[in-house]
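Annual report, structural modelling task.

Input specification for the zinc ion complex:
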Amino acid sequence: MISDSKVIKLLEQLTNGEIEELKPVFNPKSAKCVDYPLADKILTQSNSYTLHLLEDLTRLGYLTKKFYDKIMYCPVCNSTDIRYSTYCPNCGSGHILHSIVIEHPSCGYLGIEKEFTNENGHKCPKCHKELNLIGSDYNSPGYYYKCYDCGELVITPVEKWHCRQCATVFGKEEIRELCLYSYRISEEKKDKLHLERIPKNRVAELLIRDGYEVQGSFKITGRSGAEHEIDLLATKHSGPFEHRIVVGFASAEHEVDSEEVIKLYAKAYDVNAQDIIMIALPRLSPDANHFAQHYRIRVFEAEDLDKIETAFNHIHT
Ligand SMILES: [Zn+2]
Ligand SMILES: [Zn+2]
Ligand SMILES: [Zn+2]
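The model returned the following structure:
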């Protein structure tokens, strides 16, 4: 059971849509170079705590992780302020540009398109033959890099990156790459969280705040000798007295029926609880409501969940 109230708050906001997605932000100053500002703000913990938590919640199936972006940055200073440039592999000059090239197969000349064009169309600059039909008179093998210092035509130039922050020049294989991921609540857990986990944790938290010791989802043997599974059992001692509250959760597609109410009452009675709280999702049937009133069961339905905190304060006052 997730019991940290800040984690619950985070899951709650992701579930109710207040936060649609936890988006990563590249931060060259943090240890893993990535921050989740919204999560950090809610959790009020260190950045590494947030990163671990998001991974754990993903592993447990609460969150889904999705590729968000890829960041390339300087291997020396982590800056993303980097500039790409190309160089001639023959002479090292940066004075190279990429252009479409044309090849004249009959004389073997290969050059950039500009050299072949005149006002009438295409003409080979080497053998001066008119070239009319692409594919038979001449070919266009695509883009090449032309060096304007040594004249070399190459397919693959030397690629380098310049860091504008620390002025380092480095090869493309030295560049640092980091994939950033975003997190969302998993669809699978969304309904379950909305309906069960969040109210359950909230109720547990409110009872703890009230001085109760709370045990969640456990088995207990009642006075009758029967074993019961209790969703939440809250116990508070004051002197020789013990106050016990049984909290039961029931959900149904449309309405929770009276049988659930009766079962909860029987359980609570058998384990000596003085108070019973029922979270009925989405709501109790009218019939079940009568039983709940009769047994003095405090009921919270789906539409009450948002105000559970305020409603809860009235229970013991
Ligand atoms: Zn740098
Ligand atoms: Zn060159
Ligand atoms: Zn030619």
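Residues 89-156 form one domain.
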